[in-house]
Write a structure and sequence with these properties.
The structure holds two protein chains of two kinds. Chain A has seven helices and ten strands. Chain A is of the alpha/beta class. In chain A, helix 4 packs across helix 5 and helix 5 packs parallel to helix 6. Chain A is globular. Chain B has two domains: 171 residues, no CATH class; 228 residues, no CATH class. Chain B has twelve helices and 16 strands. The chains are: A alpha/beta, B alpha+beta. The complex binds adenosine-5'-diphosphate and magnesium ion. Adenosine-5'-diphosphate sits at the interface of chains A and B.
Chain lengths: 238, 425
């Protein structure tokens, strides 16, 4: 696990990042000259109406996509300078993904889903994968297929998978969007403890209450940041 | 993890994969059968076809001269109108000796037959039945039965070593019926006691003759060591423009080319060279038919095999395209988790290769069985399993499957993880 830095250090820096989609209906500027920096250990919430560019931003931050103009630096690396292969490797090492739809491989058990991330990163380690599963409280469900798990349990497997390679950045795209209140609580609790352990978390959410968990909230509109505010250190309910 | 992914992936979309494997199986079955028949029967088939008749007849040159004076044929009946039996082995020394599959001399005569209840003049012909020819270290068994594979024999062919004067004969089925002769019956021919070793049914005039060892016929004629004519069966190249040229009018270079092509004509020419005072002539219709039939059959088989392989490639392509579309979320996820394009391609190609190997192996087995059946039914000869064909078949299956799936795997490689996970946020 990465340890919280004593001095805030910039881990992500976007400069005039622009991303356009060219389709037959014309060009859509999904992100329009966005500049944003995130410190190591920070928890950032990204909000905004549908179509405002949140997914596009998350894709850029997750090294799943590249900017058309401007630059993205993550952990000191300029993404634009990386080859496709280097980017694949960099992504595996730097970013852990938590998806709204969980995206677990349906034919692999919970444990194997975690080992898959190990496999694509470097090599599998069953013990370590098991430990990760225990940390999210699913040690007894290792052999279960995703279809045999509840939504909340699937999302916890997804979190364990995101963490398995100890990436400095966690990207959570509507992590509780598909969960009921009780599971939302569990997942939120997990994210908070991860943040306390020093993980940088970038989280897209529609839920204002959820956003309050973050250190900072940025709001997108038409591909631009229209509002940005620090969350007051209100006592977290725990 | 990789084997686990392959295995699980293998169990996915089983029906579609089964279909693709089936297509590969059918394709390789056709190819294996074709190759097996092509390699093993090709030769045999050629021989079988060649055996539907001699394609060259050799006779004394004197026979071609119509020496007539005052309407009377004065061609000397003794001089020049026979070939020497001892010379025939020379036919196996010509340039195209390996294409000569059979040499069958004949010596026709009329004999007096005395049975228990009748005496009668009947036509007889002296033949080789299973005569072993030797030249150097090589030896071949030749004679009339090999030239006429459709002859049906009850009993056995007369023993015919070429040394001792034999005392066994075979009788044409019509003649046997007429003379009330049965297998093993004794009879007297030209005052010599012989025994019926076999009864032959040929479907032509031979059914009304005696078929006797050549040595016996020579003895009865009082002309040891002669034959009247020789039928030669040879594997030949289909006749083309060059084959129809008059060899004496060709340039030396073209003449060499003509000479060194196994046309029936050039083989006949070489026989004339090696046996002086003879004429060797192509028996045209049949010789040409053989080659045409053979090339048509192999052409047809090649076409069928190619079509089957093309179908297999298309089936694999279709199966892979849908498989990859259905699994694009999964591919996107794997990419997001750090899988490179090559890892994804490796996954699919490994799976396809395994599928191809499985289908190809079954196809090889099935194709070999099929070839065996075809060999028995069509060519009347068995075709053994040819293990040399297995690697060739497997390679072909893999190449065809990889080629068929390459476009869709390329699509999978090109999928960007961002667009795949897009419906998400
Ligand atoms: N792959 C794409 N091709 C074309 N247009 C796209 C694509 N992805 C997103 N867009 C467009 O870009 C804009 C921002 O989309 P997105 O980032 O998905 O917003 P959000 O996640 O906030 O809903 C939208 O107008 C959307 O239609
Ligand atoms: Mg979106």
């Amino acid at each position: 696990m990465s340890v919280a830095a004593t001095r805030p250090e910039t881990i992500i820096e976007l400069r005039d990042a622009t991303r356009e989609y060219r389709g037959h209906a014309g060009t859509v500027r999904a992100l329009d000259s966005i500049s944003l920096s995130v410190s190591r250990g920070e928890w950032l919430a990204i909000m905004g109406p549908s179509g405002s560019g949140k997914s596009t931003l998350v894709n850029l931050l997750g090294c799943l996509d590249r900017v058309d103009a401007g630059s993205v630096r993550i952990a000191g690396k300029d993404i634009n300078t990386l080859s496709r292969k280097e980017l694949d490797q960099f992504r595996a090492e730097t970013v852990g993904f938590i998806f709204q739809q969980f995206h677990l491989i349906p034919y692999l058990s919970a444990l194997e889903n975690i080992m898959l991330a190990q496999y694509f990163h470097s090599m599998t380690d069953r013990k370590e994968a098991m430990a990760a599963l225990e940390r999210v409280g699913l040690g007894d469900r290792a052999g279960h297929l995703p279809s045999e798990l509840s939504g909340g349990e699937q999302q916890r497997v997804c979190i364990a998978r995101a963490l398995i390679n100890q990436p400095p950045v966690l990207l959570a795209d509507e992590p509780t969007g598909n969960l009921d209140a009780a599971n939302q609580q569990i997942v939120t609790g997990l994210l908070r403890s991860l943040n306390q352990l020093g993980h940088t978390i970038l989280m897209v959410t529609h839920d204002p209450e959820m956003a309050q968990m973050a250190d900072r909230i940025v709001e997108l509109h038409h591909g631009r940041i229209v509002a940005e505010r620090e969350v007051s250190l209100a006592p977290h309910t725990s | 993890m990789f084997p686990r992914l392959i295995m699980e992936s293998f169990l996915r979309q089983r029906r579609r994969k089964l279909l693709a494997a089936l297509a590969i199986l059918l394709g390789t079955t056709a190819v294996t059968a074709m190759l097996a028949i092509g390699t093993s029967v090709g030769d045999k088939m050629n021989r079988e076809l060649a055996a539907y008749g001699a394609n060259i007849v050799v006779y004394p040159a004197a026979d071609t001269l119509d020496v007539q004076e005052d309407g009377i044929n004065i061609r000397p009946a003794t001089a020049g109108s026979y070939l020497k039996e001892a010379d025939l082995v020379k036919i196996k020394n010509i340039f195209w000796r390996n294409n000569i599959t059979d040499i069958s001399p004949e010596l026709p005569l009329t004999v007096t037959v005395r049975t228990a209840n009748a005496t009668q003049q009947v036509p007889a012909t002296g033949y080789w039945f299973h005569r072993t020819l030797r030249s150097g270290d090589e030896s071949w068994t030749m004679g009339a039965p090999a030239l006429h594979p459709w002859w049906k024999l009850h009993g056995s062919w007369p023993s015919d070593t070429g040394n001792a004067i034999p005392n066994e004969i075979a009788v044409g089925s019509d003649l046997a019926r007429q003379l009330h002769l049965h297998l093993g019956d004794p009879l007297e021919v030209q005052n010599q006691s012989v025994r019926v070793a076999g009864i032959v049914s040929t479907g032509d005039a031979t059914d009304r003759t005696l078929l006797v060892p050549l040595a016996l016929a020579q003895a009865w004629m009082g002309r040891p060591g002669v034959v009247r004519r020789v039928y030669v069966s040879a594997l030949t190249k289909p006749e083309d423009a060059l084959a129809r040229k008059d060899p004496n009018k060709l340039s030396p270079k073209m003449h060499d080319r003509w000479y060194c092509s196994p046309y029936a004509n050039s083989i006949a020419y070489q026989i004339e060279e090696t046996l002086p005072h003879t004429r060797a002539e192509q028996i045209r219709r049949i010789a040409q038919g053989e080659s045409t039939v053979l090339s048509r059959i192999s052409g047809l088989m090649l076409l069928v095999a190619l079509a089957a392989l093309l179908a297999a490639a298309l089936a694999v392509a279709a199966s892979m395209t849908t498989a990859i579309v259905e699994r694009r979320q999964e591919i996107g996820l794997m990419r997001a988790l750090g899988a490179t394009r090559n890892t994804i391609a490796g996954l699919f190609f490994t799976e396809i290769t395994l599928l191809a190997l499985g289908g190809g192996l079954l196809g090889y087995l099935l194709g070999s069985l099929l070839a065996g059946r075809i060999g028995e039914q069509v060519f009347g000869s068995s075709i053994a399993f040819n293990p040399m064909l297995l690697p060739a078949t497997l390679l072909l299956a893999v190449v065809v499957s990889l080629a068929g799936s390459a476009p869709s795997v390329w699509q999978a490689m090109k999928m960007e993880p961002a667009t795949i996970l897009r419906e998400d946020a």
